[in-house]
Amino acid sequence: EKPSWMTGLRKCTWSRQHPSMExxxxxxxxxxxxxxxxxxxxxxxxxxxxxxxQPHEEETKHGTEHAEEHEHLxxxxxxxVGVTHEGRRDNDPSLGLEYVRRINESxxxxxxxxxTFSDHDFLVxxxxxxxxxxxxxxxxxxxxxxxxxxxxxxxxxxxxxxxELEAHWEVNPQVNVDLVDGEDVWxxxxxxxxxx
Length: 196
Fold this sequence. Notes:
Elements: H1 4-17, H2 19-46, H3 61-69, E1 75-84, E2 93-102, E3 107-116, E4 122-126, E5 129-133, E6 136-147, E7 150-161, E8 163-164, E9 169-180, E10 183-195
């Protein structure tokens, strides 16, 4: 295995010999991922769907207070910290940003951008569709994976458990699997977020 400084030297030498090709390829990939992530977040923010049904006018004061106590906030933003386990991103740390828009008590949609620190610098962008059963959250998330090898379509499937803390803070341990290019890439981690 080559030391990391040799890999960096090789990349530096190659980029001097082919500067326009590397810049163009990196620029197109990054622009596509940034546009996809931005579109997902913008769509989620502008979605006019209600979060929970309005309480009936006939409800008593006690009933209204009980309904408000269990109302879910519309938005959540979080930071994901994790590690990959198998496949092309084997045992590499991951760091990501997550946004979730609750449609109602059972469903959500959002956007996730995750960077995996490895020799090939993987960037994953997905649109997670969530389904909740109590505090359990199940997701199916189509998206893309971009790396030095190119851009590949992927499907992320996952499950997590949402711990709700004071002042609308959340901790969400989760297990995800990315189905990409015929491989299963397992991602284990936890997100720390805040609902608003």
